[in-house]
Design brief:
With about 290 residues, the protein is an alpha/beta fold. The chain has helices at about 30-40, 55-65, 90-105, 120-125, 125-135, 150-155, 175-185, 210-220, 230-240, 255-265, 270-285, and strands at about 5, 10-15, 15-20, 45-50, 75-80, 110-115, 140-145, 165, 190-195, 245-250. The structure holds NADP nicotinamide-adenine-dinucleotide phosphate. NADP nicotinamide-adenine-dinucleotide phosphate binds near residues 165, 195, 199 and 232.
Length: about 290
């Protein structure tokens, strides 16, 4: 598995990461969640991304990586949901980090993101200060922001963060021209979330979930050809090899996903005409479309 530097953070991450949102769902058993994490590790995935709001995800990751903690770059997200503390307050962020340390059963977390807070919250500075205090206390290695659009711009240009997480895939390209090069110019790490556009093509009819429905509508509108490959291969190769992306974190509940995606990544970047077709289709047909948070 291709390994890359996460910007200038000093961390090295696998080009394919694991977005562990879906394995927090209690309809999946603990054992199955462990199998998914082990499959990721066995395929050379070293970056695992979770969040306070992802159900049992943090607990399950801790269990699955027991004995292998030092081979994993752990990323989580905080800022809300702390009893007795207002969301995005200093206390909410710092207690969120302490609770994540306990759940993940680790002495430090490699990357902690503010989880899609608004630009106003970022400008107020309290949440960012709490996160950076945790870095100075040695609890967190990299302070980061996960989100999109105006708030992402604010975060990326603020000098308060070492890394960002944003949506990138063939149906979500606005950030590529707009913020990616500026983030790299500042040495930020870049983690691409939703690298498969939530596999919108699996739905015959418009799905109920708003984020997936947005991609489904974009998919129909853009009407990209298959270019002789499966949509997941097209999407992961597009995202992983977008200039500036250090790692693409795929969400999956199936251990076999990692092998298929790793093989696609081994094929290398999409041929230039394919990439150019995808980029110009976006530019010509999706003016004004923003990142799916
Ligand atoms: N605001 C935020 O901070 C934010 C928002 C969204 C996501 N994220 C992060 O990004 C991660 C990934 O995003 P995501 O899960 O929403 O979207 P995603 O990775 O683009 O898509 C996930 C979907 O792709 C399917 N899939 C996985 N591997 C596949 C393969 N080889 N072939 C075909 N389909 C496949 C999964 O289904 P199966 O389970 O059946 O494999 C799932 O339905 C999340 O887990 C989370 O860590 C963060």
């Amino acid at each position: 598995m291709l390994q890359r530097q996460l910007g200038t953070t000093g961390l090295s991450v696998s080009a394919l990461g694991f977005g562990a949102g879906a394995i927090g769902d209690l309809s999946i058993s603990d054992d199955h969640a462990t199998r998914v994490v082990h499959a990721a590790l066995d395929h050379g995935v070293t970056l695992i991304d979770t969040a306070r709001s992802y159900g049992a995800s943090e607990d399950r990751i801790a269990r699955a990586i027991e004995g292998r903690r030092n081979r994993v770059i752990l990323s989580t997200k905080v800022g809300y949901g702390i009893e007795g503390a207002a969301d995005w307050s200093y206390e909410s962020v710092s207690r969120g980090i302490d609770e994540a340390l306990a759940k993940l059963k680790t002495g430090h977390i490699d990357i902690v993101h503010l989880h899609s807070c608004s630009e106003e919250v970022l400008r107020a500075g309290e949440a960012t200060r709490a996160l950076n205090d945790a870095v100075h206390a040695g609890k967190v290695r990299v302070a980061a922001y996960s989100g999109d659009n105006n708030a992402l711009d604010e975060a990326a240009l603020s000098s308060a963060f070492g890394s960002i997480e944003l949506s990138v895939n063939p149906w979500d390209e606005e950030a590529i021209d707009h913020i990616l090069w500026r983030a790299k110019d500042r040495g930020l790490g870049v983690i691409a979330k939703r690298p498969l556009a939530n596999a919108w093509w699996r739905h015959e009819a418009r799905p109920d979930r708003a984020d997936v429905a947005t991609y489904w509508e974009r998919g129909k509108r853009l009407g990209l050809p298959s270019f002789g490959m499966s949509p997941d291969a097209l999407s992961i190769r597009f995202t992983v090899y977008t200039w500036g992306v250090d790692s693409a974190i795929v969400g999956t509940t199936r251990p076999e996903s990692f092998g298929a995606l790793a093989l696609a990544i081994e094929e290398g970047p999409l041929p230039d005409p394919v990439r150019e077709h995808i980029r110009s289709a976006w530019r010509n047909k999706m003016a004004g479309a923003r990142g799916v948070v």
